[in-house]
Amino acid sequence: MDDQATIEADRMVKTQLVDRGVCDPAVLQAMRAVPRHRFVPQVSIQRAYSDHALALEFGQTISQPYIVAHMTELLAVRPGMTVLEIGTGSGYQTAILAHLGAHVVTIERSAELLDCARTILADVCPGAPGAGAPIRMLLADGTLGHIQEAPYDRILVTAAAPAVPDAYRQQLADPGRLVIPLGDRDSQILAVIDKLGDHFTRTDDIACRFVPLVGEDGWSPD
Ligand code: SAH
What we know:
about 30% helix; Rossmann fold; about 220 residues
């Protein structure tokens, strides 16, 4: 990263993450290292490291840095784990997961956003998308998961669901963890769902606000 971006990323990590309780060193390091300004639209580049969600194209958003870090910490990713991410969006969260050493399968329903994220990730991430690389990027309805590469140690959903899609319970490894915003279209609770044997345990975390998860086992389009 250039000097200015490094300064801004360091400040973001301290004031927005550490001061609010994010403490996993690997997560903090990933948030410092991944150049967030590369993933935001050109018009928002001056605000790339600010304490806000930012608009992407097609009414979608790149989450606030704190939400990305907090969700990633809740997910408890370790190197070598396989992670299914639903809602690639800008690809920023994908890059954070890859930086943590996860094998990421990410699904996006918008072809335009996926193409844009693919170009940026190929440039920014050491394990660029391609044959044998740790990031797999798929254009599909993510409410159905992706059975071909299941089970997943972790599933992270970055769009708001009315209820947990069946596919996620089935495609989670045992033990496994799912982090998903659950609620209505306008406000949700971040839920952490742990799978152990036949049991699923739900722990509710903070209130949050995500764009809707639109698909067969999610919300219908407007
Ligand atoms: N994690 C992203 C932000 C995602 S915004 C980032 O870091 O930038 C939510 C994304 O979920 C949007 O891009 C939206 O198009 C996508 N989405 C919504 N429903 C989906 C579905 N059923 N399958 C895959 N992607 C979906």
